[in-house]
Amino acid sequence: MSPSKKSGLTAKEKLRPISGFPELLPEERRVELDWIDKIRTIFESYGFTSIEPRTVEPIDVLLKQGDTDKEIYTLGRLLDIPNSDREPNYGLHYDLTVPMARYVAANMEKLDFPFKRYQIQKAWRGERPQDGRFREFMQCDIDVVDTREIPLHFDVEIPTIMHQVLKSIDAGPVFTRINNRKILEGYYSGLDIDNTSAAIRLIDKVDKIGFDGIANLLKLELKLNTKTIDKIFQLTQIRGSGRQVVDQIQRLGVHSDLLDRGLEELTFVMQELEHNNEEAFSVDLSIARGLAYYTGTVYETRFVDYPAYPSICGGGRYDNLVGDFVNKRLPGIGISIGLSRIFAKLLKEKRIITDKKSPTEILVIYSRGAPYQLVSKTAQTLRQRGFNVEQYHEDRKLNAQLKYAEGKGIPWIWFPPNNIDGEHQVKNSVSREQQPADPTTWIPEKG
Description:
Elements: H1 11-15, H2 26-45, E1 49-50, E2 56-58, H3 59-62, E3 74-75, E4 90-92, H4 97-106, E5 115-124, E6 136-145, H5 153-168, E7 174-180, H6 181-190, H7 196-203, H8 206-222, H9 226-236, E8 239-240, H10 242-250, H11 257-275, E9 281-284, E10 294-303, E11 313-318, E12 332-337, H12 339-348, E13 362-364, H13 372-384, E14 389-391, H14 398-408, E15 412-415, E16 424-428, E17 434-437
Parallel strand pairs: 1-5, 7-9, 13-14, 13-15
Antiparallel strand pairs: 2-4, 3-4, 5-6, 6-12, 7-10, 8-9, 10-11, 11-12, 15-16, 16-17
Helix pairs in contact: 2-5, 5-11, 6-7, 6-11, 7-8
C-alpha cells in the first residue's frame, strides 16, 4: 500500500485497542512510575548502574541466542514495503539480556568490571497475546558481568534483590524455584543422552504440555527409551531444600563430574539463602529456563495466589552470552522482573490503588479580579519551594475551577488576593477547611 493512500479504517477502528499493546490511564501510570522509582532505588542501593541500550539490534544479534525468529518484530520504512523480497536488517529487541550483552561487548574498554547494570526498558515480542503475555512490555533487569569467574555469592544476592523489589511494590506472596543447569546437563550426560541441550529444552515445556507430551517428544525427537525417560522424570519431580535434593538425586544412581559440581553449587546457594532467612525459595529440578545461554543457577518466580499465571521473574548464570561477541570469556548472572506482567495481574485483581490521577499538590485559582501576574507569581513561588503546582489560566467561575481540582484529586486549593498586598487563602480539599497562608512560608499540615 502506498503511504499516500488511506488505510480504509473507520474512525472507531482507528481508536480501538491493539491486542498485546497495553495503554495505562494516568492514575495507573502514576503507580507504575512509583514502582519504577522504588525498583531503581533498590537496584542502586546494591551498586547497580543504569544503562539503556538501543531498542533496535541487527537481526544477526537477535538470532544469536536460541530459537527466537518467530518472536522478532523487524524494522523497516513504509516506503520499503513494495520491495518485499529484501531481507530485514534490524529488529526490535525481544528481551533486555541480549542487547545488554552486545552493549557490554561493544563498550568493554570503557566499563569497570565486574560490571553491574540495571535496565528498566520496554521490549517487544511477537507472540499470541493472552493473560500475562504481551507484545509490548516493560522489564526490569539486573546483571553482573565480569572478565573473571563470578563468585557464587552473586547467585544468592541476585534473587535476594529480586525478592526485595517484589516486597517493595507489594507483589507478594511469591515463591521462587531454583535449579542448576549443570545438574541437568550432568544428569542427562550420565544417562548417555547425546543432545543434552535438546533434552533440557523439551523438559522446560512440561508446564505447558505435561509429562505425557514431553515423553512423546523425547521418544520422537531424541529416540530415548522408556527407561531413560523414566529416569528423567524422576529427576524433574524432586523438590525440597538443598541437602534433601542432593540425597534424592544420589539415590537415583546417575553419576558425572558435571552433576557433582552442579549439586555443590546448588547446595551453597540454598544454604546461604537459608542463612539470610529467605523462606520463599525451594529447589525444583523441573526448572530449566528454556533460553540457550544459561549454564548454572537458574531462577523462576511465580505468584503464590495465582499459580497458573506465567512466571513473573526469571534468570540465571551464563558463561558465553557476552563473550561470544568478542571471542572472550565474560561470564555473567542476572534476573529479569516482568513489571508489565506483575502490574497487569495485580491491577486485574484490584490490588493496586489508583486514586491519584495527577501529581499536582496545589491548584492556584484564578481569583476573580486578581491580576494574572499575581496568580502566576504565587504559583511560581510555591513551585520554587518544591510543591507540584498547577495554575488555572482562565478567569472562569469558581465552581468550574473547583470541579477541575476535584476531578484530578488535587488536595490543596490556593486563593490569591485581588491585589498584591492582600491576604492569600488556602483550602484543604478533603476537610474543606480554609485559612490564611503566605506562599513563602506555608507548610501543609500532616494527615
